[in-house]
Amino acid sequence: MNIARAQCAASSITPETRGDDFRRKGQIEQAIEAYLDGVAAPPSAALCLKLARCYEQMANYAEACRWALSIVDAGDDFTSWQAGWALFQRNAQKARRPAARSVKVALLGSYTTTQLGPMLCLAAGRLGIHIDLYESRYGQYQQDILDHKSGLYAFSPNIVVLAVHEGDLHLPEYSQRPEEEIRKEVSRWTGLWRMVTERSRARIVQHNFALPCEVPTGHLTTRLSGSRYMMTQAVNMRLGEAAANAVSLVDCERLSALIGKQRWCDPRYWNMSKQAVALEALPLLGRHTAAVIAADLGLSRKCLVLDLDNTLWGGVIAEDGLGGIKLGQGPDGEAFVAFQEYLLKLKRKGVILTVCSKNNHADAIQPFEKHPEMRLKLQDIALFVANWESKPDNIRAIAKTLQIGLEALVFVDDNPVEREIVRKFLPEVDVIPLPEDPSYYLRTLSDYLLLETSSLTAEDTERTDQYRARAQIMELEAAAGSIEDFYRSLRMQAIVVPFDASQLPRIAQLIGKTNQFNLTTRRHGMAQLEAFVRDDSYVHLALRLRDRYTDHGLVSVMIARKQGHVLDIDTWLMSCRVIGRTVETTMLEQVCRRAAQLGCTSLRGTYIPTQKNAMAADAYAKHGFERVGDNEGTEIWTYDLTTKGLIANTFVTPVDSWELADDAC
Amino acid sequence: MELHDRLEEVFRQVFDNEALTLTNEMTAPDIEGWDSVAHINLMFGIEQAFGVRFKGNELAEMKNIGELKQFLIGKGAG
C-alpha cells in the first residue's frame, strides 16, 4: 500500500484518477478504496458522485444514499445536485431507508419551479427530512389556493412553500399613493395565507421578494417612496410583521444579495423558460428553504459544543499563558473576539453554549475569569467540560447532563482530527468544518443553517432588541442638542488599571502603532514595558472604555515617572477609535489621583510634535497645564495640583468592573 | 480531456446515465429524457463545464451534437 502510494505521488496520479482506472476495469471495491483515500473535508461534489455510483454498483444502497446527500455539503453546483438527486431517489427506494421525518410539501410557484423541487428535496434529505412533493402547474399558485377543489388541497400538505418572485408583485412602476398600493398587495398575500390555513393544516413558508438589479430611476429611487422598488421593500417589511409566528419567511432579498443579484436572475433563462431564479442560485435557495422547514419541524440544533485553544482564542492556554494567547490584538486576536461576540449573539437568541476542551480545568477557565478581552464569560457557558477524556465521551456526557439528544448538538473545533473522531463515533452530532483562517470562523458559523429558529420566544427576543435599539437611537437624536448631552447619553464607563501581563501585548501594539493622539511617540518595546512594571517609581495606566452599545476594549495608555514631587508623563496615547469622547480627560483624572496618592504636587507633560500628532497639540493646554519651556521643538507643560486641584471628567464613570444597566447591552 | 469526452461527461451527469455515448448526428429525440426541462439543465451544465455563455437565442437553437461541438469550438472552448 505504502509503495503504491509512493508511486502514485511520483507519477502525480491522484487517488481520484486511480479510482477512475479501477472503475474502468470493473474493480469497484478497489475504486472505492482509492476514492476514499482522496476524500478531503469537505469532499468535492465529483468525488461524492463517484462514490455514490460505486456503492450503487456494489448494491450498497444506504452508502450510495449517504454519498449522494453529502453533495449538499460540497458546494452549490446545480448540475452535481441534479445528478445527486437522481442517484438518491433511485437508491433510497432500494435501501428502504427510513428518514428522520417525512413531510408533504406543496411547492407553489410564480415561475418555473421544476428545477427548484429536486434541490429542495436533496437539501431536506441531508437534514434527515423526506419530502413528498406536490408542484403547482407553472404560475398557478393563486388558482391552486383559491380553488378549494384544487390538487393542492387534495394533496393535504403539511407545508406550503410559496416560491414567488418580484416580477409577480401587483405594484405599479410608480404610484402617487404608495401606502394604498402596499396595503393592497400585502393583504393579497395575507389573504392567500388565510385561505391556505382555513382549508388545510399546512404551515406556510413564503419566499419574500428579491429586489431587482435593474433600477430605472437610479439612486434617486431611494428618495421616491412611490417607486416600485421602495414599495417592494415596504411589502417585504409588512409581510414580516404580518407573518408573526404563523408563517415562516425565507429572506430571498438577503440570499440574492449574498450570491449577487446579477447571478440570482439570468435574463436569458427567464426569457427562455421563465426561471426567475437562475439555476446557479437554486441550490442556495433549496438549502435555505429546507433549513426553514427543518426549523418549523423542530429539527434545528439547539446547542454548540465549543473547543477552546485555537477555537475561542489563538494559541494554547496551558503553554502560552494568559498573556501569550491571541485574543484582542492583531488580526487573529480581533477575529477571535469577533467570533466570541457572534457566539454571544447566538446565545441571546436561545442557542445553548457549552465547552468541551482537552485541558486542565484550572488552565481552561483562566481566560474566562481573567483575560480582559474575553467576551464569553463563565456564566455564558451552560456546561464547562475541560479534562483529558475523549471528546465523544465528553459530548455524550454533555447531552446527558443537559438532557438533550445528540441530534441537538453541533461540534465546533479547529482540529480536523477531533472533528473526524466525533463524526465517526457520534454521527448524530453535526460537525462544523472550521476553516484554517480564524478570520472566517464567524462567517462559517453564520453560513451554518441548522441554527435557524422559528419559535415564538426567539422571535420575541429579537423583536424586543430591535425595538430597544430603535428607541435608543431616537433618544440619541433627540438628545443631540448639545455635545454634553450627547456624551452623557453614551453612558461611558472606564476601567483604568495598572498594566498586567495579559494586557502587555495589546499595550505594546498601541504604543507601536498609535501616531495621532500620541504626545511623545516613544515606541517602548515589550522588554521596556516589563521593566516599567517592575519599577516602583513608574505609574502605568491602561484604560478600557465601554459605552451603552459597545465594549471598545483597551484604548488608552499612560506611563509616568515619579521624580521627587513631580510626576513626569513619559507616554500618553489614545486609539483614534475613541477620539472626541473625553477619554483623554479621564486619563488625566486618573493620573491626578495616582499623583496625589504618591504625594506629588505637580504633573509634568511633554509634547513632541511630529508630522502626524497635531491632533494632540492642545491636549495639555485644554486641561489647564501651563507651558513652561521648549527644548529643541519639544514642549514642556506643567500642572500644579496644589493650586488647581484634581482634574475630573463627569462624562465617563470610572468603575472597577462593567456596571450593566438594563439597557446597557 | 478532449472536447468530445468533456461534453459526454456533462450529458452523463445531466441524464444520469453513465453508459451514454455521444455521436455527432445525435439530436434530442435520440437521447432518453431530453425534454425542454432537461435541455435547460443541459445548456446550463455545458456553460458551467466549459466556462462559456450562450446567447439567449443560441440556448434554444442547438440542433444536434455536431452543431453543439462546432459552437463550443467557436466559443473558444476547443
Automatic annotation (TrEMBL), chain A:
Residues 104-293 form the BF1531-like N-terminal domain. InterPro entries: Acyl_CoA_acyltransferase, BF1531-like_N, FkbH_domain, HAD-like_sf, HAD_sf, HAD_SF_ppase_IIIC, SGNH_hydro_sf. It comes from the Bacteria. GO terms for molecular function: hydrolase activity, acting on ester bonds. Pfam families: FkbH_N. SUPFAM superfamilies: Acyl-CoA N-acyltransferases (Nat), HAD-like. This is BF1531-like N-terminal domain-containing protein.
From TrEMBL, chain B:
SUPFAM superfamilies: ACP-like. It comes from the Bacteria. Gene3D superfamilies: ACP-like. This is Putative Acyl carrier protein. It comes from Nitrospira defluvii.
